[in-house]
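Minutes, methods subgroup
Present: GH (chair), OT, SY

1. OT presented the first of two proteins processed in the latest run. Sequence and structure tokens recorded below as shown on screen.
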Amino acid sequence: MSSFSAVLQFPPAAPEQSEAWLRQKLALYADAWDVAQDLAHGVPEIVVIDTRSEQQYHAGHICGAVSFPHRLMNTDTLAEWDREKVYITYCDGIGCNGSTKGAWKLAAAGFRVKELIGGLDFWRRDNHPVTEGDQPGSWSEMTTLPDCGC
């Protein structure tokens, strides 16, 4: 008698198909640890954007992120942004689609963009630095990155 597998009810994709899909997924998303690594090392090619309201940004945001609420993104407000950068958008967490709306507006305007998986919620859960106020803040030399174990 053969056993039933809920996982194998639908056979896995061919390795080539999986590789292509996973490469595409990694092209669209970044996780908190990867973004923290780049911010801590001052990688100049990325800009982290908090797509929430200015009030939410002021109350607490990713250290190094700039405030650019998705509701304010349009052709005029995006005109001066650097098209050579890669923009990482985030909002509160998986229950908020502000980062998706911001990423969509940026991509539709011709910018390269990724979304931060889990937003500020996952960022805080992983104990990465958060700052308050109207300025992005900067990473301290004392900031130690936790090992994510992956």
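2. SY then presented the second protein from the same run.
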Amino acid sequence: MKQYEVIGVIITLLGAVLWGVSGASVQFLSNFRDMNLEWLVTMRLITAGLLTVIYAWFRFGNSIFNVFHSVKDTLGLIVFGVFGMALCQYTYFRSIALAGAGIATVLQYLAPSMIIIYLLVRYGKRPSKGEMISVILALVGTICLMGNGDGLSIESFPLMVLVWGLLSAVGVAVYSISPVDLLNKYGTLPIVGFGMLISGIVAAILFHQPNSYAEWDIWTVVGCFNVIFLGTIVSFNAYLEGVKRIGAVSGSILSSIEPISAAFFGWAFLGNEFSLLGLIGMAMIIATVIIIAWDRQRTIKREVLAKLNKTILE
């Protein structure tokens, strides 16, 4: 492996680990400092969005505002921001507060399976064998998570944990699918930056929570720094740079360390506990990301070989 790729692996892992640190920090701020999650979500989106837009402007100039020249694309950006980023962030924070960073992050990783089901229902796209296995694993893994700590008992599992966790996965699915054309047309930084900024402004209007109501000390500041700066700006840019170096497939596989990171930090610093059944469920859901990535890589290789053979025959 070349040095260029080694650095790509390292910074991709760094981005995923920092996402896990951010999740554990949200749990700390909510459960140990009584922070208002609506305030935290709003501050995270506005601050990260504003800094990302400023950074994009320094790199690309006024061209970052081109998306607003089209009414259709502007509406698409608003949908991406509100129903993708804002929905994902708020529901993710809520599920963390109820179930801890590890379980909340794993539930969010149900998004790839949701996308597969959506493509089947919406466009009739039949899933491959790998995708079908992933959907089954995701379902069984979720059932196992519901038995974390109390045996396989649905009655003992807080329903709102599942509701917020699944809504978080829906948010991830929305912001994974909806902005594809916008990203290709206008670039990643402007779309993500404006998406976060717009969703933060909408959150501020809807929630109208100017106060954090938190118990402020040095650890509260550190937690906010982890969530807003390390877990958003640094992690996002590290992951993107890493993917640019090693490719999207390898990047998506390495990103599966995020829930492991979140679970570890939650266990090490916040006292989260996991039963064997819960750990098996987490492993199953994380495995779906790896299986889907490998399956896509095989599909890409088959398509390339098919085109090559066709060219040779012609």
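Chair's summary of item 2: The CA atoms of residues 111 and 170 lie 6 Å apart.
Next meeting: continue with the remaining queue.
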